[in-house]
């Protein structure tokens, strides 16, 4: 049993994370950041849930670029092949669920 108080979590660097669980090849990680990530395409699908703060998610899909402003409680789903980049506005804490990668 584990309780994680996401609003209390910080990391020593942007996009630092703690592993919550890996189940059947899917990882759940809590990230803290105050800096943008980088444009990327995941190896599979990704669920990105803002737990604290505000994040502007930029995405490219079918040749079109767009963005969505995500607040605490909002969820962004990136389907396979969806290029995206997260830009927090100040500090943010995000739960990311995706295919597990070896670290």
UniProtKB/TrEMBL annotation:
It comes from the Bacteria. SUPFAM superfamilies: RmlC-like cupins. This is Cupin. It comes from Rugamonas fusca. The lineage of its organism: Bacteria, Pseudomonadati, Pseudomonadota, Betaproteobacteria, Burkholderiales.
């Amino acid at each position: 049993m584990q309780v994680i108080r996401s609003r209390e979590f910080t990391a020593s660097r942007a996009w630092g994370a703690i592993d919550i669980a890996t189940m059947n090849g899917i990882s759940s990680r809590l990230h803290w950041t105050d800096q943008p990530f980088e444009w990327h395409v995941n190896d599979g699908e990704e669920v990105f849930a803002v737990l604290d703060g505000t994040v502007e998610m930029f995405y490219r899909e079918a040749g079109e670029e767009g963005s969505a402003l995500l607040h605490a409680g909002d969820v962004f789903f990136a389907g396979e092949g969806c290029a995206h980049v997260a830009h927090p506005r100040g500090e943010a804490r995000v739960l990311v669920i995706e295919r597990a990668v070896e670290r």
